[in-house]
Design a protein that fits this description.
alpha+beta, 415 residues, 3 domains, single chain, 48% helix, 5-stranded antiparallel sheet
Length: 415
Amino acid sequence: MMLIVSMLPGPRVMDRWIAAFLLTALLTISTVPAAPAEETPPPFGPWLEDLKEEARQIGVGEATIQRVLAGIKPLPRVIELDRRQPEFMLTFWSYLQRSINDKRINSARALMVRHRELLEKISAQYGVQSRFLVSFWGLESNFGEYTGSFPVAGALVTLAHDRRRARFFRAQLLAVLKLMDRGDIAADAKGSWAGAMGNHQFIPTTYRDFAVDFDGDGKRDLWNSLPDIFASAANYLSRSGWDAKRTWGREVRLPKEFNFELAGLTIGKSLADWQKIGVRRADGRDLPRVDIEGSIVLPAGSQGPAFLVYKNYRTILVWNRSILYALAVGHLADRIGGGGGLLAKPTKGDVPMSRRDIVALQTVLAEKGFDAGGADGIVGPATRQAIKAFQKSVNLPPDGYPSMGLLERLRGTSG
């Protein structure tokens, strides 16, 4: 699978790790229905007065309303970033290289030691292993080094006033006003351009519903209080279905005659059944003899690495729907715990595809009778199903993976 990554502002901090952070915010909001892009926002003054009245109706204090919203204006830079269409898509290997490196692994291990007592206490209470809490921390904000530079209220006012995702962001704005009124968040708090906040980049409704005052000081501070930061992440994962007795999954080796129709999160089998089919650990050993189900994930298609993922992997997807992000969280957690790198080697010739390439792929698929769900330059379920159908028709492994090689094959076929 490939994923879109936006242009990254600011050379000092927008390095290998920040792509994962921005991708989190993008994917969190990507499933919200969008209003027509050409719809004109209403006059800002009356709109803001209506917003203030709604804030009063849900219990936000007048002092907070005036402190946060007096003189506030839309931020053109936020609209620019919201409208920016990323040109290239990351492959699995390029995503992993951006997300996980020796510096991050070593930093994570050192932080595990430094905060062991606190992490173990939170892990025991919420049932989430410490290495996963640190892994999320590293991928979301590089252990708190970068939590965003945009005024949260200003960013959310901008996006709520804009028409593209007005309903979603109005709900986020009202939630953040309540949090500010409660004292959890400062009126001048900074976050991402999309309103994600703190060390784990919670959007306001996630902050509202899952943040924890673990240090007992009367507020839930996800910028400065490590007890609150770790406990809030653990609470979110625990309440989303985390299993403290299991890991996330593992790299595996597939048999030569593997049926690629069995790959994907829609197919679940017991480890015993996968063992019978011929799936083994990456080093060739048998799968664990435990009574759990797993699914096969192929992030780089049939020529790339294979992973057998469990329930906790699906819980990571609750946090962030990106398949690649979930794999990165799991693999970084393994490395923090002392595990080694992947045994699979980077796929040769697997280069990033541009949006234009994806549009061309979808267009040619449609021309040949395979419905890709439109030519929008985004690889979704319909496009992957169309790819699988074409692959089966020409006796290729039906892995549903888009690539330049596949596009060239499509262009070279008749029909």
